[in-house]
């Protein structure tokens, strides 16, 4: 059998070419100076490679793939004497146009390579005008020659993570952010000292794969709406060029790699929010960008009339467990791990990944099994949003559980209810603090990713400042966003000048923070909550690019005491491994005390089967079990009642005293005096104490 390089070259449209390598898919620079192009289509009858000079509308070369360059359903070709720095490329496919049977081939469509490592078309965030022609999305060539030095995945144990969810642009776009390169990957690098001061060791980025922020054209009250969040991917292998300060193309890739490298140097992991359940092509009325025109019946779930199934509420659903699509997703994740050193992934509407080619849930989905046991992803963290828009809810039952963690929405709801005095959730809260053993009875505590707020919904400040969503700026007449927010405005809707209401809101934010960080499982914080960032009551800022969706860094000075509280709670969690223990064990440990115990207003006296407003919980952390510097006890007294309560503290071993660590009703978080056996808790407050010698 002859090797590829033994075949003679030929000329097509004045360009020297020869048969290419099937693998890897996409466009790859060869050592001999050629560029290997490889793409698949099961239903096409022909394929043409289109070559463009940088920014030109029309291709300078059209290269139909000779039949000899086709192997099975793959088209591959090596093209010579082209400048990869200025080259853009696309494809066109021949085949049937028969949408009722799923065929959508039109030879006039210029299609983006699904494996493109860089994409041109929307190179600078929001630059293009509303009256422009439709964007031509094209692939570009990347040189994989970034100097990583000794960088690799950090492999921080899952139970030791403190995740900080942020939007690349919104994190630093505010003029008061204090950095030079606002709204970019480089901007995050500039904010690393802030992240370290706060104490988090992992950031989770909202989607950073290439998408079109300008796909929406609606104007509301003089302001254009944007696809701000980015949950409509156009290319799963390419970083968002508009998030780069250094310019488009290869510089964008290098800027992102440098961001990961610098975060790793500072002990901070990077998790990407990925969206494999649908794409930016939407339904039948959406654009044709790549998958629709390349292999529609392969990549999407279709009904008997060729219409797109819509389990995602976004117009289409990816056919994730088709073998070709399954390998495509695997290739994508492997690429981001091997070429960008990404530490983990959070999967949007992950149950769709468990649906078969007819849309039915599967007991053992091959895609999830493959992800869980893939050797390249072996040290990579996988987190599922374990529900989809069609009602498939898999929290606690997500397939392939040994590898996967899950966002725990039940934790969120429980904490929100309890701090606003819904006593009936008290018995449930006992489970949530333990790491939800009722939901994950045979799994480690790090199976649950605990959170009170995330990008989707109210911020922590708005959770305690608004009873209702205020989404009119989105242009959907307040119909978008969830209606059940489990929020309470503390007595007045929105901003207030009432000092008592402000003090109560401060306490409530701190109460939620403390319960989150004192619970076993993996805590996730929403960026800006640590200084009470607001979105003006909008619980769905997916289409807002402006002050409403950006972090307002002035609030860091306004609410410095809240930041200090968050910082202190994070320090406490980092310093005490008993809080991060991987098992649900609560029996007696080497201290002679239960490792995790629950108390009423009197120690050891709490009816955990009945509603309550006031309770305490205590961790025992002996040197013998946790290799800490000395024996410790950590106690939290919680008063979710609207009246003041006294609590009697549990007795400590001889020679030990209780010291106040944090009190949510006190803005002084530096002083840690010893206390007696009784503490007073004002209405809706909590106190954290340390027992030591």
Kindly describe this structure.
The chain has 693 residues and is α+β, with helices and mostly antiparallel strands. Among the domains are: 4-140, Immunoglobulins (Immunoglobulin-like); 588-692, Sandwich (Immunoglobulin-like). It contains 14 helices and 33 strands. The strands form 8 sheets. The chain has an 8-stranded parallel barrel. A hairpin with a 4-residue loop joins strand 10 and strand 11. The mean pLDDT is 95.
How would you summarize this macromolecular structure in one to three sentences?
The chain is 20% helix and 21% strand. With 693 residues, it is an alpha+beta fold.
Q: Please name the CATH architecture of the domain at 4-140.
A: Sandwich
Number of β-strand runs: 33
Q: Uncertain spans, ≥5 residues at pLDDT below 50?
A: none
Mean pLDDT: 95
Strand content: 15-25%
Structural class: alpha+beta
User: From the alpha-carbon coordinates, what is the Rg to the nearest angstrom?
Assistant: 27 Å
Number of helices: 14
Portion of residues in helices? 10-25%
Helix-strand layout with pairing:
Layout lengths: L9 E3 L2 E5 L6 E4 L5 E6 L5 E8 L7 E4 L5 E2 L2 E6 L7 E8 L2 E2 L4 E2 L13 E3 L17 E3 L22 E4 L1 H5 L12 H6 L1 H7 L3 E4 L3 E2 L8 E2 L2 E2 L10 E5 L10 H16 L3 E6 L16 H9 L23 H18 L3 E4 L18 H8 L7 E4 L19 E5 H11 L6 H8 L14 E4 L8 H4 L35 H19 L4 E5 L27 H5 L1 H16 L20 E4 L14 E8 L1 H4 L5 E8 L5 E4 L8 E7 L10 E2 L2 E4 L3 E8 L1
Parallel strand pairs: 14-15, 14-25, 15-20, 20-21, 21-22, 22-23, 23-24, 24-25
Antiparallel strand pairs: 1-2, 2-8, 3-4, 4-8, 5-6, 5-9, 7-8, 9-13, 10-11, 12-13, 16-19, 17-18, 26-27, 27-28, 28-33, 29-32, 30-31, 30-33
């Amino acid at each position: 059998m002859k090797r590829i390089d033994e075949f003679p070259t030929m000329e097509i449209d004045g360009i020297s070419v020869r048969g290419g390598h099937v693998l890897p898919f996409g466009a790859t620079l060869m050592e001999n100076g050629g560029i290997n192009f490889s793409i698949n289509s099961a239903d096409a009858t022909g394929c043409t490679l289109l070559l463009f000079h940088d920014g030109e509308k029309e291709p300078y070369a059209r290269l139909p793939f000779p039949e000899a360059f086709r192997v099975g359903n793959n088209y591959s070709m090596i093209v010579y004497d082209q400048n990869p720095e200025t080259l853009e490329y696309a494809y066109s496919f021949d085949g049937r146009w028969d949408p009722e049977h799923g065929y959508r081939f039109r030879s006039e469509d210029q299609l983006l390579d699904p494996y493109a490592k860089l994409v041109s078309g929307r190179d600078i965030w929001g630059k293009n005008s509303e009256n422009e022609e439709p964007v031509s999305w094209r692939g570009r060539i990347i040189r994989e020659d970034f100097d990583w030095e000794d960088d690799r995945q950090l492999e921080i144990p899952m139970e030791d993570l403190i995740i900080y969810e942020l939007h690349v642009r919104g994190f630093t776009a505010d003029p008061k952010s204090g950095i030079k390169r606002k709204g970019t990957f480089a901007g995050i690098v500039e904010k690393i000292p802030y992240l370290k001061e706060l104490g988090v060791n992992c950031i989770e980025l909202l989607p950073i794969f290439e998408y079109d922020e300008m796909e929406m054209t609606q104007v509301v009250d003089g302001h254009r709406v944007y696809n701000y969040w980015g949950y409509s991917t156009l290319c799963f292998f390419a970083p968002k060029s508009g998030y780069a300060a250094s310019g488009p193309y290869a510089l964008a890739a290098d800027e992102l790699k440098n961001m990961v490298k610098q975060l790793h140097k500072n002990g901070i992991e990077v998790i990407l929010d990925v969206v494999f359940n649908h794409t930016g092509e939407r339904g039948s009325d959406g654009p044709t960008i790549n998958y629709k025109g390349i292999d529609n019946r392969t990549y999407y779930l279709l009904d008997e009339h060729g219409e797109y199934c819509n389990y995602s509420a976004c117009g289409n659903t990816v056919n994730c467990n088709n073998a070709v699509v399954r390998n495509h997703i695997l290739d994508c994740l492997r690429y981001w791990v091997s070429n960008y050193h990404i530490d983990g992934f959070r999967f949007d509407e992950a149950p769709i990944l468990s649906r078969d080619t007819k849309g039915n849930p599967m007991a053992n989905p091959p895609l999830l099994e493959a992800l869980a046991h893939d050797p390249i992803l072996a040290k990579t963290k996988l987190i599922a949003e374990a529900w989809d828009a069609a009602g498939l809810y898999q929290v606690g039952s997500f397939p392939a559980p040994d590898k996967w963690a899950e966002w725990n929405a039940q934790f969120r709801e429980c904490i929100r209810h309890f701090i606003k005095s819904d006593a009936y959730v008290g018995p449930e809260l006992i489970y949530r603090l333990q790491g939800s053993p009722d939901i994950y009875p045979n799994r480690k505590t790090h199976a649950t990713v605990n959170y009170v707020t995330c990008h989707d919904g109210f911020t922590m400040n708005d959770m305690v400042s608004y009873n209702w969503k205020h989404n009119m700026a989105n242009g959907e007449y307040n119909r978008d966003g969830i209606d059940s927010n489990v929020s309470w405005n503390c007595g007045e809707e929105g901003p207030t000048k009432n000092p008592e209401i402000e003090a109560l809101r401060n306490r409530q934010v701190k109460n939620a923070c403390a319960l989150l960080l004192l619970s076993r499982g993996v805590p996730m914080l929403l960026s800006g909550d640590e200084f009470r960032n607001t979105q003006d009551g909008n619980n769905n800022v997916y289409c807002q690019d402006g002050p409403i969706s950006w972090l307002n860094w002035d609030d860091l000075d306004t609410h410095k005491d809240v930041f200090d509280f968050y910082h202190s709670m994070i320090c406490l969690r980092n310093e005490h491994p008993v809080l991060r223990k991987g098992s649900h064990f609560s029996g007696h440990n080497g201290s002679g005390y239960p490792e995790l115990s629950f108390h009423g207003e009197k120690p050891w006296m709490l009816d955990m089967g009945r509603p309550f407003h006031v309770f305490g919980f205590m961790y025992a952390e002996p040197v013998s079990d946790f290799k800490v510097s000395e024996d410790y006890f950590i106690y939290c007294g919680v008063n979710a009642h609207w009246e003041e309560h006294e609590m009697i503290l549990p007795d400590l071993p001889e020679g030990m005293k209780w010291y106040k660590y944090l009190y949510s009703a006190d803005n002084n978080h530096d002083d840690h005096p010893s206390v007696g056996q009784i503490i007073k808790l004002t209405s809706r407050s909590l106190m954290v104490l340390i027992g030591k010698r």
